[in-house]
TrEMBL record, chain A:
UniProt-listed Pfam families: TRAPP (PF04051)
PANTHER family, alphabetized: TRAFFICKING PROTEIN PARTICLE COMPLEX SUBUNIT 6B
Protein name (Swiss-Prot/TrEMBL): Trafficking protein particle complex subunit 6B
Family as reported in the entry's similarity comment: Belongs to the TRAPP small subunits family. BET3 subfamily.
GO biological process: endoplasmic reticulum to Golgi vesicle-mediated transport; nervous system development
Coiled coil: none
Localization (cell): Endoplasmic reticulum; Golgi apparatus, cis-Golgi network
Reported function: Component of a transport protein particle (TRAPP) complex that may function in specific stages of inter-organelle traffic. Specifically involved in the early development of neural circuitry, likely by controlling the frequency and amplitude of intracellular calcium transients implicated in the regulation of neuron differentiation and survival.
Originating species: Drymodes brunneopygia
Main location: endoplasmic reticulum
Alphabetically ordered keywords of this record: Endoplasmic reticulum, Golgi apparatus, Neurogenesis
Endoplasmic reticulum among keywords: yes
UniProtKB/TrEMBL annotation, chain B:
Principal location class: endoplasmic reticulum
Organism the protein comes from: Drymodes brunneopygia
Biological role: May play a role in vesicular transport from endoplasmic reticulum to Golgi.
Subunit architecture: Homodimer. Component of the multisubunit TRAPP (transport protein particle) complex, which includes at least TRAPPC2, TRAPPC2L, TRAPPC3, TRAPPC3L, TRAPPC4, TRAPPC5, TRAPPC8, TRAPPC9, TRAPPC10, TRAPPC11 and TRAPPC12.
Keyword Lipoprotein: yes
Identification of the protein by name: Trafficking protein particle complex subunit 3-like protein
Stated family: Belongs to the TRAPP small subunits family. BET3 subfamily.
CDD domains: TRAPPC3_bet3
Location relative to the cell: Endoplasmic reticulum; Golgi apparatus, cis-Golgi network
Length: 150, 180
């Protein structure tokens, strides 16, 4: 639906705006990523509350991760996570081969150094969602070749 | 259909809430970064402008509307097609000048402020939805219509409704002659 286009544009504008402000002002790049991540955190907290109002209680961590991979990701990015891996000791890797926020940028290795900026918000989104479901976590992202990311 | 229609509507609502929540987080972050309300307003307007110049392509591709032949047709198009497509609301249009180039869109329901109760006391002159003004201005400029877009009334500041005023300026071609 058309909302998606709005959100994609707003997101890319946010990233560009924050970095532009940082270049003119005193902040360094690291702070921008933190700001984006904390924005994503707030949004993730609110969103997961609205989302899980009517769903049943989750049995365990794996169940929560599966929920994030399927329902949450589908609602936010209109597709499911392609691959979920875990070592059953608390580390999960979610792989998305066609990440919505990166598809419009490039396919392959061009502009790879700019990709992390666009993932910061989503990392915060996941961390916020998990925190409101009772899980403390650290979320990082890795892009080796656009538009896939882990 | 295997999926119940209720769930689909819910998902649709949630992706709209994602946009609203993200916008709220953005305004909150800008308020932290800038002390003066005018700076925040200007920043929102600038971001809205950049979004608008890209959104118009998306809008024209999705709606395939024909060229508008008058300012009032343009204002109607914005209110009835564009707002409905992107925000799900249909503001009412009224022409507020005899020359026919000033219009106002009256929104009785603004989805962007769904989760906002009131503006904090120290931010009394913040135009929370200033992004919308920038978007309309940017989009109109890309179809060669220069316009000034501002908020005339704002429910968050205590007025009865939210009103956006669009003033179409002279066409850019006329101004080019003056410059030479």
């Amino acid at each position: 639906m058309a909302d998606e286009a709005l959100f994609l544009l707003l997101h890319s504008e946010m990233v560009a705006g924050l970095y532009r402000a940082a270049e003119q002002g005193e902040g360094e790049n690291g702070r921008c990523t933190t700001k984006l991540e904390s924005m994503g955190f707030r949004v993730g907290q609110g969103l997961i509350e609205r989302f899980t109002k009517d769903t049943a209680r989750f049995k365990d961590e794996l169940d929560i991760m599966k929920f994030i991979c399927k329902d949450f990701w589908t609602t936010v990015f209109k597709k499911q996570i392609d691959n979920l891996r875990t070592n059953h000791q608390g580390i999960y890797v979610l792989q998305d081969n066609k990440f919505r926020l990166l598809t419009q940028m490039s396919v392959g290795k061009q502009y790879l150094e700019h990709a992390p900026k666009y993932l910061a918000f989503t990392c915060g989104l996941i961390r916020g969602g998990l925190s409101n479901l009772g899980i403390k976590s650290i979320v990082t992202a890795e892009v080796s070749s656009m538009p896939a990311c882990k | 259909m295997s999926r119940s229609p209720g769930r689909k509507q819910e998902n649709h609502k949630i992706s709209r809430e994602l946009f609203v929540l993200t916008y709220g987080a953005l305004v909150a972050q800008l308020c932290k970064d800038y002390e003066k309300d005018e700076d925040v307003n200007a920043c929102l307007d600038r971001m809205g402008y950049s979004i608008g110049i890209r959104l118009i392509d998306d809008f024209l591709a999705r709606s395939a509307v024909k060229k508008c032949r008058s300012y009032s047709e343009t204002a109607d198009m914005i209110a009835q097609v564009a707002f409905k497509m992107y925000l799900g609301i249909t503001p009412s249009v009224s022409c507020s000048s005899a020359t026919g180039n000033e219009f106002s869109l009256i929104l009785d329901k603004n989805p962007l402020v769904e989760f906002v109760e009131e503006l904090p006391a120290e931010r009394a002159s913040l135009c929370y939805c200033n992004l919308l003004c920038g978007v309309i201005r940017g989009a109109l400029e890309m179809v060669h219509l220069a316009a000034e877009v501002t908020f005339l009334q704002d429910r968050l500041k205590g007025d009865a409704v939210t009103e956006i005023g669009i003033t179409f300026l002279r066409k850019p071609e006329d101004r080019k002659h003056r410059r030479n």
